[in-house]
Amino acid sequence: SMARADKPEWLAAAEGVRTQVAQLIGGKARHVAFTKNTTEGLNIVAQGYPWQPGDNLVIDDQEHPVNTVPWLHLRQRGVEVRVARTEERRVTVDSIWSQVDAHTRLIAVSYVQYSTGVRADIQALAERCRAQGIDLVVDGIQGVGLLPIEVEKWGISALACGAYKALHGPLGLGFVYVSPALLARLQ
Question: What's the rounded mean pLDDT across residues 25-33?
Fold first, then answer.
């Protein structure tokens, strides 16, 4: 007999979950991919980014190793990693922006800091990044599912998140959202 033209059940279920994730973060399902965890999502962006000699990126001194190590590894490829000093362990747009110059290509920050629970002003940071053509990459695991986030509306270039915290998912599952503009440039 002929094979059924409709999708296998597992594929339909996966697409349904991807659509739900996209709705949760204010993006489109075709820009969401499943990963093992936050780390894998961040590494997809860090390693696939079209880095050029002289480029730099900015992180801050309160980041979890998950949102530090992928970027620090880029030093081996000649990328300068700048670390913004926070004030009283609070990540501010101004502290991050103090490290930005004409060669800054990307800023990586957590939506909510793991050690303090302080929420970064992602909207304000994204607005500045858009104005300067800088990509904003967000580690969302401490905030997604608890706080509103609108990746498209705010202009976030990439968002990586594991499913096991506020999303009440299993270990070993996460997702990464990549904006259309960044996706077109990732290798």
Answer: 97
Is the pTM value of this prediction over 0.85? yes
Tokens 């590894």 label which residue?
Answer: 73
Give the three-class secondary structure for 23.
helix
Q: CB–CB of 81/51 below 8 Å?
A: no
- Strand 158-162 to 135-139 pairing: parallel
Nearest to 17 by CA among 170, 142, 181, 138: 170
- Closest CA relative to residue 144, chosen from 130, 165, 128: 165
Paired tokens of 55: 């480029």
Distance in angstroms (rounded) separating the CA atoms of residues 110 and 95: 14
Mean pLDDT, residues 132-141 taken together:
97
Does 94 score more than 50 pLDDT?
yes
Answer whether 2's CB lies under 8 Å from 13's CB.
no
Cβ 41 vs Cβ 66: under 8 Å: no
pLDDT of 1 over the 80 cut = no
Indicate the SS3 state at residue 89: coil
Per the prediction, the chain carries an average pLDDT of 94
Tokens of residue 74, six digits: 């880029």
